[in-house]
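To: structure subgroup
Subject: Chain for Friday's discussion

All,

I'm putting the inputs and outputs inline so they're searchable in the archive.
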Amino acid sequence: MPGSNCLPLAGPDAKFLRRAAFLNHNLWVTSYNRDECFPGGEFPNQNPRVGEGIPTWVQQDRKLEETDIVLWYVFGVTHVPRLEDWPVMPVEHIGFHLKPHGFFNCSPAIDMPPSKAVVAYDLHHKEVAVKGAGQPETLTSTLMSKL
């Protein structure tokens, strides 16, 4: 699940997008290749090599099933300066969360046996906490056995 994010605020013909075309999308998936380590290809800041990087690797249309894959998540912030930013710059929180969807065919907790309740008492033998309660009848029977 993506967090706050943005695409570059530049036109499609911007020169830096020749070297950093991976910025045009936030999520890319490629099959694993040990030579593909950098999203812009090797040395993108020194040589505007066209045809290197994630967009070129995706165009090769390599299979993604039954193979190791690499998920490339590209995130960035476009800072629009304001007078209030001086002298203390604002903080931008950015990131993403990995949340599985469809990983299990049912809830793995369905077949769990009910847990037994553990009752904690204070010095005057008054109940102060119940931990690990499973089914309500288990809790009731456990509490009744303590009387």
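Points worth raising on Friday:
The chain is about 15% helix and 15% strand.
The radius of gyration is 27 Å.

D.
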